Each structure stands twice: as C-alpha cells, then as structure tokens.
Design the sequence.
C-alpha cells in the first residue's frame, strides 16, 4: 500500500506507544500547595466556549460513520444541523456564558448564499442557515466567532486577496443587525498543504498582507470586531509539523502590519484511528499518561513568547481543541476516558494565560459534547457543566508533588472561597494533604464504573436533566475525606488558611 505524502513525511510518529510510568512507584499520597495568595491570571467569563463545525451546520462532509479521511474531511455527507430544538437550547444555556465558533476545514470551500449553477453539488451556506444560526446565538445569549473564507487558490495569488466573496455575507449581516464578535481568515492556514494541496499553502509574509486586507475590510462593516489569527494547528511531538514549510506562526506574527486582538492556535492531544498519521494515538493508555498533558503547556509557552514579542496587546486563545483529530476516537472520545484531558486542559489553559478555550465540538463527531443524533450529553459535557457552575475567573497557582495528581485552583463563582480541581490519573486511591487550605466544605466527584463507560456519576449519581433542569443540589454531598478515588476528577471547595504568608 502506497503511503500518502503526509504519511511519508511523518511515519516515524507511529513507532511508540506510551505506558503509564507511575503506577509502580507506590506513591499513594500527594501534597497540594498554594504558591501565591493572590490570583496570577484572569480568564474571560466566557472562557469555556465551544464550536459547531461548518460541515455540521451546513451539511458537509463529516466524521460519523467515516472510517477514514479525505483531504482533511470525513467521507460521508451529513444533513444540516437543526438548531431549532428546545433540548439543544437547554443544554447550551447550562454551559453559558460562552462564545460559539463556526469554522472548520470546509470554511474555505463553502459558498455564501449561492453557488456556480454549473456545480449544484457545491457546499453552500444559505441565508436560511445563517438566519437560523443568529437566532440560535441570540436566544441562547452567546457571543459569536466566525471563520471567513480565505479560499483555495494558487500560491502565486497569495498576498493579493481582496475579499470579494465575503462582502455579501458582511453586507447582509450588517443589514439584518447580526452581531459578529470575533472573526478570523481561513481555517488552520499552516495546514493548507495537507488539506488542500501544496500549491494552496500560503507563505507567512503573503498571508500577513492578506490578513491586513481582511482586517481593514471587516472593520468597515464592524468597527468593533475582534480580529483573531492565525489559528495554526499544532501536533503532539511535532508542533506545526514540517519545518520550515508549515511553521508559519512566528513569521506571520512578525510580518503582520496590523494589530491582532487575539493570537490563537489549534491543538488536539491525540489522533483518532481515522487520521493517516498518529503521533499520539487516542487509546486508554495515552489518555491517562501525564506526558500526554504536558505538550499543551510547552506549546502554550511558545505561543505566549511570540505574542509578547510581536503582538503584546493581543489576548491568547485556544481557538479549537478536541480529544482527537479527525472527529474523535470512537469508544474513547465519547466515553469517560475523554474527561481527563479535557478537565486538565481547562485547568492548564487558564494557568497559562489563555483567555478563552474553544471546544471542538459542542455537537457532532465522536468528540462532540452532545450526541448529534440523540442530543444526549456525553461524559465530558458534565465536566464542562461543573466547570461553568464552580470555577470563577481568577486563577491561582498551585502544585502537586505527585505526577498522578493534576491540580488547578480558581476563585469560586461567588468570590468567597477557592475551588480546587484535583485530577487523579492513577488506578489507586490517593491521600491528599492541603496544608495551605482548610478541609473541603463542598465536594463533587466524577467517577465511572470503567474508563470506557458511556455514563459517569457525580457524587455517585448519574446526572440528567429533570424537566429541563439540572442543579448542584441534585448531587448529595459525600462524606468529607482527604482521599481521591482512582481515575477520578474532583472539585473541592476550600478556604485559604490564614497563617499562610
């Protein structure tokens, strides 16, 4: 079987499978320390945000049922998403406030409102779809981030983009009074070579010129809109993949003649079986391996350094993230096993100064927080729900002396206490000491019968919406203990001891 160009370049990424390095050490306790009495970062109130892929919204090529990938897309076409359901509204409102991002690989192939009559099968965002999307955004009190079409044209035309095709969408949106809070030009511009062919790959300097044109154009219609970019895709172990061809982020930022409001990037910690290349396969071993989480920190620090150097006034966002590339991994991304990377990345992103974390996806694919067919929430929906209920905007710096215990801390939503997020990736009960905090006064434990379980429990109870509602009071408090259950995600409400200097 002949390897694709991408496989030949990256085939070394398949060679190793991780094993958990800590299960045999025998450390069955951990100490959690508070390093500063004052917050070190502040996140956006809409920090935990989410996307609906434009392929799902408008009925393009998507992942469910697909066994492989074709030019960065699934191999099956899906019907357009029905946004007019009260159940979906309830699920979304329970996670607010949030940004809704609409983007994805087909954002650069789509036609706005109409297409060439000679190609009736072209991918179209109709006016009705756009109207329904904005109605959905408005009634659910969401902010909106949109990926405008850059287009698939030959490399020699990069640097000369005029935005003719997006003007009718901007004009119509302005006339209808639709609000667009954040926008970007093109999806994963550093990966065009992989998704759309070598001749479509923009160079950083020409892309910077096109981005400047884009910023001027959209601000004529929306003067207060925030410009986001470049949305580069980073891979575990590889970063922006092929040097120097696709490593455009740094050179793009240093070449850009206009100021960005947001410097963002895309990151998936694993790859699904559909992906032609797997630098870190999505399996049970890997999703509970401490090193799997640490690449996010490495790349976050790199992005922050470039931001500080070239766009010091811009915020840092994770503009797209999901458990596994190419739609997620069946029986991993839609199961309890997926909760651990997600809880950890929410904590890491805030601690690293990321203002917003956009989850791919709200609905659609094996990595969707909500099942597209049944509209049932999946396990990591409930991680998101608890985060939204508990974790405030002020971020504290904490650390654990045991690599099996990942720990993060935020001020509570009511600003009275601290919420500790304690993630136990070990197969053992772990005893926790918190010398800088008092005993927990409120606890929420997320556990499951096994890592591949479809359902989780919060304080021993399966979460669900009862008559359209769910609340923290639905989960009776467990007996206070200083132990974490094996393979569990825990939220502890605590207060800082007064004797801490």
Sequence:
């Amino acid at each position: 079987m002949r390897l694709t160009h991408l496989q030949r370049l990256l085939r070394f990424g398949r060679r190793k499978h991780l094993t958990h390095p800590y299960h045999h050490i025998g450390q069955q306790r951990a100490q959690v320390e508070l390093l500063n009495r004052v917050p070190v970062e502040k996140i956006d109130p809409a920090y935990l945000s989410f996307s609906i892929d434009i392929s799902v919204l408008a009925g393009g090529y998507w992942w469910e049922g697909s066994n492989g990938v074709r030019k960065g897309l699934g191999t099956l076409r899906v019907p357009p998403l029905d946004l007019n359901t009260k159940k979906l509204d309830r699920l979304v409102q329970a996670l607010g406030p949030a940004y809704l991002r609409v983007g994805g690989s087909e954002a650069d192939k789509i036609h706005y409102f109409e297409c060439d009559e000679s190609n009736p099968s072209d991918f179209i965002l109709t006016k009705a779809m756009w109207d329904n999307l904005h109605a959905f955004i408005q009634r659910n009190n969401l902010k909106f981030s949109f990926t405008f079409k850059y287009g698939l044209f030959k490399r020699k035309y990069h640097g000369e983009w005029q935005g003719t095709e997006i003007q009718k969408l901007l004009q119509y949106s302005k006339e209808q009074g639709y609000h667009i809070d954040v926008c970007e030009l093109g999806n994963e511009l550093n990966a065009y070579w992989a998704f759309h062919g070598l001749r479509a790959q923009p160079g950083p300097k020409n892309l910077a010129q096109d981005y400047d044109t884009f910023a001027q154009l959209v601000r004529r219609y929306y003067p207060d809109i925030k410009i986001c970019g470049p949305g580069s895709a980073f891979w575990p172990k590889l970063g922006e993949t092929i040097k120097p061809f696709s490593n455009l982020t740094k050179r793009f930022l240093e070449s850009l003649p206009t100021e960005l409001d947001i410097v963002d990037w895309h990151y998936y910690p694993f790859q699904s079986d559909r992906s032609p290349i797997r630098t870190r396969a999505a399996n049970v071993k890997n999703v509970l391996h401490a090193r799997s989480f640490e690449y996010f920190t490495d790349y976050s620090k790199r992005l922050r350094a470039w931001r500080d150097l070239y766009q010091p006034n811009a915020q840092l966002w994770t503009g797209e993230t999901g458990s596994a590339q190419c739609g997620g991994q069946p029986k991993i991304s839609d199961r309890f096993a997926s909760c651990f990377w997600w809880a950890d990345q929410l904590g890491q992103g805030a601690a690293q100064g990321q203002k917003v974390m956009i989850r791919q996806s709200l609905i659609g694919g094996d990595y969707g927080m909500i099942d597209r067919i049944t509209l049932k929430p999946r396990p990591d929906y409930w991680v998101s729900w608890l985060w939204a209920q508990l974790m405030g905007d002020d971020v504290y710096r904490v650390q654990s002396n045991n690599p099996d215990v990942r720990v993060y801390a935020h001020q509570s939503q009511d600003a009275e206490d601290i919420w500790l997020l304690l993630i136990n990736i070990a197969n053992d009960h772990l005893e926790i000491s918190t010398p800088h905090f008092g005993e927990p006064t409120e606890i929420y434990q997320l556990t499951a019968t096994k890592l591949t379980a479809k359902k989780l429990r919060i304080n021993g109870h399966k979460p669900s919406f009862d008559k359209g509602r769910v609340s923290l009071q639905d989960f009776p408090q467990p007996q206070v203990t200083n132990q974490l259950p094996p393979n569990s995600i825990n939220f502890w409400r605590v207060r800082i001891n007064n004797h801490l200097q």
